[in-house]
Specification:
alpha/beta; six-stranded parallel beta sheet; binds uridine-5'-diphosphate-xylopyranose; binds adenosine-5'-diphosphate
Length: 458
């Protein structure tokens, strides 16, 4: 088969690399309108940082894995087309701030309608609200090109930072298709792709709507657990309880389980917030305001957690951070990724800048240009003078030198093994550490002389 994937992002790139690796007889081409991104996929420095991805791309690229900007040419030759473009939350018009913006998906569908030939299978891979496959189907049908088609929903469950592991050994693969002989045949073709390496019993087939809704539901449930434990973290800070101990105690209940109970400065990432907002929008649309409010509270709690973190920091620093140097360690939304979408670090830094602090940011994988874009600021002013309230540091010790406080916002492993004595010696006193991920050994830091605040623990 000729497989085409439209969209070379965090989902399309790693997923297609894995399919190409496992299915050498299929030719897999990932296309994108973003020339820089495609050039990066064809270079030694991939645009997506993901442990293990380099090796897989190196093995398959040029053999049966290709990255190209020739969107139309690739679609024209494809038997199976994955749509893996971004579906951000709408920022304008009806449903602004809630509904997914489907303009990129619609563009893809129209492009496919224009150039596809023969009998094709269109697979929606992007995170979409329920009933999007239906829109894709109607556009393809309405345009009436030289082809017949089936639309499948195949939501991706990989988590960034562990994408290659998740793709290699998924808990399940979900394939939603129309329940007609043609739909079942198309679903079977996709089952056969995954069956190259995924045990058959882990490949679930459902109807299209169930598959789409399952993706939103899975993310809503996971985000809800984080918001639940974060809600308890606020109570712990007000009392003598330690949220890490509470999480351990409840996590040993096999009905609850230990995962996704790590209290933090808040969840981020491209999916959780977007998917819950989508769910909220759908519930409102279907006249279910109580259900919408229920899920919206997960987001409210997450916003509260981020602003609570900053308020606590300011309070501890004698109620002012104006002109103070605050070292920010970590900017990505979680470790082992260079993705910053919805990262709590963005909100924390914005609030600190609002309080007139100077933030010195260190992250091992995020590029400076990305940080400035996320904070909505330029690296230099019109006269070319450097922005002196946001400094991106290449060296973690330089970031902490002469700082009033250090805030850990991403749980990068390297932060656990820093020379904290050296950091202490070079900081202003009293030296404060705000561990927004609860990864540091607070007792050891206190022995050095630091004043340490974690999340949900005193
Ligand atoms: C998520 C889903 O896990 C994945 O299945 C789906 O395909 C996409 O959305 P991702 O956003 O990449 O994946 O990361 P995830 O590991 O789920 O973490 C999301 C956020 O929650 C991160 O900011 C993380 O730091 C935070 N988190 C996670 C916590 O604060 N505590 C936890 O216990 C777990
Ligand atoms: P995700 O995390 O879902 O993979 P990304 O934003 O990382 O999201 O990737 C989506 C990619 O899709 C972007 O690189 C974007 O340029 C690409 N894209 C969006 N619309 C189109 C289109 N019509 N044709 C080709 N590529 C597109």
């Amino acid at each position: 088969m000729n497989i085409c994937c439209i969209g070379a992002g965090y989902v399309g790139g790693p997923t297609m690399a894995m399919i190409a690796l496992k299915c050498p007889e299929h030719r897999v081409t990932v296309v994108d309108i973003n020339e820089k991104r495609i050039a990066a996929w064809n270079s030694d420095e991939l645009p997506v940082y993901e442990p293990g991805l380099d090796d897989v791309v190196r093995e398959a690229r040029g053999r049966n894995l290709f990255f190209s900007t020739d969107v139309n040419g690739t679609i024209a030759e494809a038997d199976m087309i994955f749509i893996s473009v971004n579906t951000p939350t709408k920022t304008y018009g009806v449903g602004a701030g809630r509904a997914a913006d489907l303009k990129f998906i619609e563009k893809c569908a129209r492009q496919i309608a224009d150039v596809a030939k023969g009998n094709i299978i269109v697979v929606e891979k992007s995170t979409l609200p329920v009933r999007t496959a239906e829109s894709v189907r109607r556009i393809l049908e309405g345009c009436g090109g030289e082809f017949t088609f089936q639309v499948l929903s195949n939501p991706e469950f990989l988590a960034e930072g562990t994408a290659m592991e998740d793709l290699n050994e998924p808990d399940r693969v979900l394939i939603g298709g129309e329940q007609t002989p043609e739909g079942e045949e198309a679903a079977q073709a996709l089952v056969d792709v995954y069956a190259h390496w995924v045990p058959r019993e882990r490949i679930l087939t459902t109807n299209v709507w169930s598959s789409e809704l399952s993706k939103l539901t899975a993310n809503a449930f996971l985000a809800q657990r984080v918001s639940s434990i974060n809600a308890i973290s606020a109570l712990c800070e007000a009392t003598e309880a330690d949220v890490e101990e509470v999480a351990r105690a409840i996590g040993t209940d096999s009905r609850i389980g230990p995962k996704f109970l790590k209290s933090s400065v808040g969840f981020g990432g491209s999916c959780f917030q977007k998917d819950i907002l989508n769910l909220v929008y759908l519930c409102q649309h279907f006249g279910l305001p109580e259900v919408a409010d229920y899920w919206e509270q997960v987001i409210v709690m997450n916003d509260y957690q981020k602003s609570r973190f900053v308020r606590r920091l300011v309070r501890t620093l004698f109620n002012t951070v104006s002109d103070k140097k605050i070292a920010i360690l970590g900017f990505a939304f979680k470790k082992d990724t260079n993705d910053t979408r919805e990262s709590p670090a963005i909100y924390v830094c914005r609030d600190l800048l609002e309080e007139q602090a100077n933030v010195h940011i260190y992250d091992p994988k995020v590029k400076p240009a990305q940080i400035f874009a996320d904070l909505g600021q330029a690296a230099t002013d019109a006269d070319g003078k450097a922005n002196d309230s946001i400094i991106i540091e290449e060296d973690v010790y330089a970031a902490c030198k002469d700082a009033h406080a250090v805030a850990i916002l991403t749980e990068w492993d390297q932060f656990k093994t820093l020379d904290w004595q050296r950091i202490y010696d070079n900081m202003l006193k009293p030296a404060f550490v705000f561990d927004g991920r609860n990864i540091l050994d607070a007792a050891a830091l206190r022995k050095i002389g630091f004043e340490v605040s974690g999340i949900g623990r005193v």
